[in-house]
Write a structure and sequence with these properties.
The complex is a heterodimer of chains A (390) and B (396). With 390 residues, chain A is α/β, with parallel strands linked by helices. Chain A contains 7 helices and 21 strands. The termini of chain A are far apart. Chain B has one domain: 5-stranded Propeller (L-arginine/glycine Amidinotransferase, Chain A). In chain B, a hairpin with a 2-residue loop joins β10 and β11. The relative contact order of chain B is 0.19. The chains are: A alpha/beta (390), B alpha/beta (396).
């Protein structure tokens, strides 16, 4: 009998992970769950379809190298299997809605979350990703068969009817509201999801043993965070909601793994362009003697033609923080991010540089494209001094 | 903040219940998970579609009466909302398959299981019921908003590809295998489902506090039982499997083995199971568990009401006959039971066992897939999780 699923935090020694597949990635058609505005040069605004094959090939080359590096370090890599529906532009539906196409399956982190021996299918907030679990099922079925202690669970799948979205959000965001108004909404955690039903992406979380920091981004709603608190509360796991501001001019964002990154117990790297708005979160770290180090920022200038998240990256991008720890003092970082690599090295961290800039247009970097399945070690309490009511 | 969901057994005092809706029920189209052979008089073999409106009206009349009786006894009744997609004959599917229509939503018990403060959406075994949860969502969303302790969960939805079903199972059942072969397969837990992924219906479970008896084979595969055991063990709940043998008797049996437990074995009060004598328990560990905790098993009196069997959402019907659906009762508390009003012999037996029996005419609702237990989900029963089986059987 094998133990396959065991991952309580973001830094314990990594032994096994799931890695996405760029094949089948598409620019998703319009839907209420995402505002897509692809510019000229890529897909023109309002159109959608498959990524060009040459981009897929380039991404594959970089991902294959990443696999080699992982395997040299004795880390088992399970690749996602692309479902046939992703191989063409075809509509998918439930009795509540029809979507023109699917989004792709290169970023399993966004929807699938491992907490200890449990692997959970998240309640993701986009219609174009509703069936993404089909790509992961061959892996989950195998884990379930081979590891008798694996708990394979799922949040109730959200219906995602029109009632789950604030329909005028993106229109007003781009045409009506002032920056001040947008900032106020961000600070009040009001984005395009309603609270009709629990919705959340797995990539909104940072796992640190008994404590999980949960980013109330535009892809997690109040009902979703309430759901997570009830479900994991019953298992003794504490979910802490966090909100971030911005020093820039985009007032909604998706995932926590470009904002904070716990490198090892006691050390958190933080993206200074996204200041903490939740004081209790900062207190929680400080009270438990964690050091918060501000990241130096990105180096690489992206010039993307396409991106699955709506806006192709032009110039510097917070995606530089999207790293994966191979162990408590070893981090795989995108190879072009020289300033960040230098900073981490000076902090005494072994950096494993991985060229990944051509994978990023498929939705994310080293953290997004992986799910850490097995990390040595059990559940620890890294925050014994809790903040009352938080 | 009100407590809405709390239901640990089949017999603690009932305060709130979900009740199905017959509207939208259809004879479902062919699919690999079920064998359909409607006889002349109902839908001809191989056809499918909506139940006639007069049948819906007749069922509604009886269900309204049942709802009224429940309310008179202080039970809050929440009715299922029929999703618009069930209001017409239309196909739907997932990227893996398409089916021609839905089955209906009169039997929420089959797919939704309360365990304490949790209601779990089950990974049901039929494609025509894959989206049935849409009809329950308005209720679950309301409970989730109003009851801050309610855990609303779901098993991973099974893909139900062709790999989840034994190819040619029903053909072999009808045309190839001998009775002995069929019986043997049922006893060996080899039914129409493969072990590709966990699959189970909620109505296969009989809840008795810390212990849940799960009827396996007909509506729960081995992976599904394994899933339940792991998931609920982490919550301190013990799942026990039960296989069934089959013997002749006054009522026709629905093939070998057993599916939903609420026509096979039901706990009526601490210490008492009522059992369908045509389906002997084939899992000796269960008999031992029952015995060593001083529970008694009483054989149910045979059914009396003759159903015409012209139409049913559930497939195989035939000549007019009595049916063990008589056992599909709902307990108001340890002493009081709602029983189908035509089942005179069973009513009499239960009265002799000391129960107050509340007769409910339900023969017209039964056609829509099940009787008093099938059409309900007990949401709130007073009391907490009790250990009725402190002497466990090792390894079971």
């Amino acid at each position: 009998m094998t133990k396959i699923v065991n991952a309580w935090n973001e830094w314990d020694p990594l032994k096994r992970l799931i890695l996405g597949r760029p094949e089948g990635t598409q620019v998703a058609g319009p839907e209420p769950g995402l505002h897509s505005h692809q510019p000229e040069g890529g897909f023109p605004t309002g159109t959608w379809g498959m990524y060009p094959q040459e981009m897929v090939d380039e991404a594959n080359e970089q991902m294959d190298y990443f696999v080699q590096v992982l395997e040299k370090r004795k880390i088992i890599v399970d690749r996602v299997e692309v479902h046939p529906v992703y191989k063409e532009v075809r509509s998918v539906s439930t009795p509540d809605w029809t979507m023109n196409n699917v989004r792709g399956t290169n970023c399993p982190r966004d929807l699938f979350m491992v907490v200890g021996n449990e692997i959970m299918e998240g309640a993701g907030a986009q219609r174009a990703r509703w069936y993404e679990h089909l790509n992961l099922r061959p892996i989950f079925e195998r884990y379930f068969k081979e590891d008798p202690e694996c708990l394979w669970t799922a949040a109730p799948k959200p219906r995602m009817t029109d009632e789950s979205y604030d329909h005028e959000y993106f229109y007003k965001y781009y045409n009506v509201w002032t920056d001040d108004e947008k900032r106020k909404r961000m600070e009040a955690s009001r984005f395009h999801l309603t609270d009709k039903e629990p919705m959340w992406d797995g990539a909104c979380c940072m796992r640190m043993g008994k404590d999980i920091i949960w980013f109330h981004s535009c892809v997690s709603n109040n009902a979703g965070i309430d759901w997570l608190k009830r479900y994991f509360g019953a298992k003794g796991i504490r979910i802490h909601e966090v909100q971030f501001g911005t020093t820039e001019s985009t007032f909604y964002s998706f995932h926590i793994d470009v904002i904070i990154c716990p490198i090892r117990p006691g050390l958190l790297i933080h993206n200074p362009t996204r200041p903490f708005l939740t004081e209790e979160a900062v207190k929680l770290f400080k009270k438990n003697d964690w050091e918060i180090v501000e990241a130096v920022g990105p180096t690489h200038h992206y010039d993307e033609k396409l991106d699955t998240f709506g806006s192709p990256r032009k110039g510097l991008s917070p995606i530089f923080m999207n790293t994966i720890s191979l162990g408590p003092n070893t981090v795989a970082v995108e190879a072009h991010e020289l300033k960040y690599i230098d900073q981490l090295t000076k902090l005494g961290i072994e950096v494993v540089p991985i060229p990944y800039d051509l994978v990023v247009p498929f939705g994310g970097s080293l953290h997004c494209t992986t799910v850490d399945v097995y990390r040595e070690g059990g559940v620890e309490d890294y925050f014994p001094k809790q903040i009352p009511g938080y | 903040m009100p407590k809405i969901v709390n239901s640990w057994s089949e017999f603690q005092p009932l305060k709130r219940v979900i009740l199905g809706r017959p509207e939208g029920t259809q004879v479902f189209a062919p699919e690999p998970g079920s064998q359909l052979d409607m006889p002349a008089g109902g839908f001809p073999l191989g056809t499918w579609g909506r139940f006639p409106q007069e049948l819906v009206d007749a069922a509604n009349e009886q269900m309204d009466y049942f709802a009224q009786k429940l309310k008179e006894r202080g039970v809050t009744v929440d009715r299922v909302t029929v999703h618009p997609a069930l209001a017409e004959v239309r196909s739907f599917g997932t990227p893996d398959w398409t089916v021609q229509n839905f089955r209906g939503t009169n039997c929420p018990r089959d797919l939704f299981m309360p365990i304490g403060n949790e209601i779990i959406e089950a990974p049901g075994v039929l494609r025509t019921r894959w989206f049935e949860y849409l009809c329950l969502r308005p209720i679950f969303e309301q409970y989730f908003k109003e009851d801050p302790e309610f855990l609303w969960t779901a098993a991973p939805k099974p893909r139900l590809t062709d790999e989840s079903y034994e190819r040619n199972y029903f053909y072999n059942l009808k045309n190839v295998w001998s009775d002995e072969e069929k019986r043997k397969r049922a006893l060996e837990w080899k039914m129409v489902y493969t072990e590709n992924e966990p699959m189970w219906d909620a109505a296969a479970a009989a809840r008795c506090g810390k212990d849940v008896i799960m009827s396996v084979g007909g509506a729960c595969n081995q992976a599904g039982f394994d899933w339940l055991k792991r998931y609920f063990a982490a919550r301190g709940i013990r799942f026990h499997q039960c296989l069934w043998d089959t013997v002749d008797g006054p009522a026709p049996v629905w093939g070998y083995g057993g599916g939903h437990i609420d026509v096979l074995l039901l706990p009526f009060r601490p210490g008492l199971f009522i059992h369908n004598p045509q389906k002997p328990i084939a899992t000796p560990e269960l008999l031992q568990l029952i015995k060593q905790n001083d529970w008694e098993i009483v054989d149910a009196a045979p059914p009396t009401h003759v159903y015409p069997n012209k139409i049913s959402s559930w497939g195989a019907t035939g000549e007019p006959s009595v049916s063990w659906i008589s056992m599909n009762t709902l307990s108001l508390d340890e002493k009081t039971i709602f029983v189908e009003a035509h089942e005179e012999r069973y009513l009499e037996q239960l009265e002799k066992l000391g129960f107050e029996v509340i007769p409910i005419p339900y023969d017209q609702a039964e056609i829509f897939g099940g009787s008093l237990h099938c059409t309900t989900v007990d949401v709130y029963r007073e009391g907490k999780c009790e250990d009725y089986f402190p002497k466990q059987v090792t390894g079971y």
